[in-house]
């Protein structure tokens, strides 16, 4: 810098060098301030959900991690990978609007209770819709319970109507639900959960997303959740190999339980006593809401 100052151009040369450096430093600092603010916003929302439903503490972070793994396996760029991680972390933020007694109920839900829980994607979208940096993650919050065959909720979207981000999170959510202990179900071994996802690929889940998760977990592994109430890892599943429940019913994965031997696919949230499907979705939306 002293050489520039003593050059024929003197202070002008020094200014031409220092000004871009200063602007770059300011932009870099601003980026990190914004990123820290974004992370703080997400962390506060996740902590609120974890406090409300302590039994699934850590579920949001694990779904974020699984979503990120799927996105990377599919070759998405770093920005989209980060957004998919945010989508997974925030997918259940709408449960802040659901009564705690329903989230922690140890047993089957009544049809009315199920309808209340099925409102959580719309509650979540209302919470995050104004957070612009989330981008397509907002669509995942709203649509992560849609199913390829149109049997999901809240709008009964099918196939390509479902945003890609939501199709990623749906697989990540169901996988973690199956490999975690819940108040109403015991965890499955990782391999059993992957087999269940493969069984339901094409009907409920996007086969590309399922295949991506299977590949990345086969290669990198996965550490299932261990809850505070039951420190045994999910790999120590004590259910019969054929999926039978202690009372003679069937475990259908992801917290979905039927006592009639039904074959419902895994889901991130729901459990029933009659093997029925989720309540009828609302009017089909013309496209994904953001």
TrEMBL record:
Gly residues bias: where? 245-256
Feature: compositional bias, Basic and acidic residues? 229-240
The HD-GYP domain extends over 34-229
Domain HD: start-end pairs:
56-178
Superkingdom of source: Bacteria
Fetch the PROSITE patterns from UniProt. HD, HD_GYP
Q: Which InterPro entries match?
A: Cyclic_di-GMP/3'3'-cGAMP_PDE, HD/PDEase_dom, HD_domain, HD_GYP_dom, HDIG_dom
Annotated spans, Disordered: 223-290
- Record-given protein name: HD-GYP domain-containing protein
Q: Which organism is it from?
A: Streptomyces haneummycinicus
Its ancestry begins with: Bacteria, Bacillati, Actinomycetota, Actinomycetes, Kitasatosporales
């Amino acid at each position: 810098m002293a050489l520039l100052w003593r050059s024929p151009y003197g202070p002008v040369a020094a200014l031409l060098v220092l000004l871009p450096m200063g602007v770059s430093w300011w932009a870099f600092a601003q980026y990190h301030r914004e990123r820290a603010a974004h992370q703080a916003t997400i962390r506060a929302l996740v902590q609120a959900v974890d406090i409300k439903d302590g039994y699934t503490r850590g579920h949001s972070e694990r779904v974020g991690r699984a979503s990120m793994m799927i996105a990377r396996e599919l070759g998405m760029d770093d920005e989209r990978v980060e957004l998919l991680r945010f989508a997974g972390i925030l997918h259940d933020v709408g449960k802040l609007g659901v009564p705690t007694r329903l989230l922690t109920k140890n047993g089957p839900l009544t049809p009315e209770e199920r309808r209340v829980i099925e409102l959580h994607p719309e509650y979540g979208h209302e919470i995050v819709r104004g957070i612009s940096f989330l981008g397509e993650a907002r669509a995942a919050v709203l649509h992560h319970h849609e199913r390829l065959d149109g049997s999901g909720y809240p709008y009964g979207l099918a196939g390509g109507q479902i945003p890609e981000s939501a199709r990623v999170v749906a697989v990540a959510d169901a996988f973690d639900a199956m490999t975690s202990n819940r108040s109403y179900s015991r965890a499955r071994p990782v391999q059993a959960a992957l087999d269940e996802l493969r069984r339901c690929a094409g009907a409920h889940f996007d086969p590309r997303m399922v295949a991506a998760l299977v590949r990345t977990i086969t290669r990198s592994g996965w550490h299932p959740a261990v809850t505070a109430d039951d420190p045994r890892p999910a790999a120590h599943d004590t259910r019969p190999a054929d999926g039978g429940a202690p009372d003679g019913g069937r475990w259908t994965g992801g917290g979905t339980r039927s006592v009639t031997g039904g074959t419902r696919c895994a889901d991130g949230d729901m459990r029933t006593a009659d093997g029925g499907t989720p309540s009828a979705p609302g009017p089909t939306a013309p496209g994904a809401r953001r």
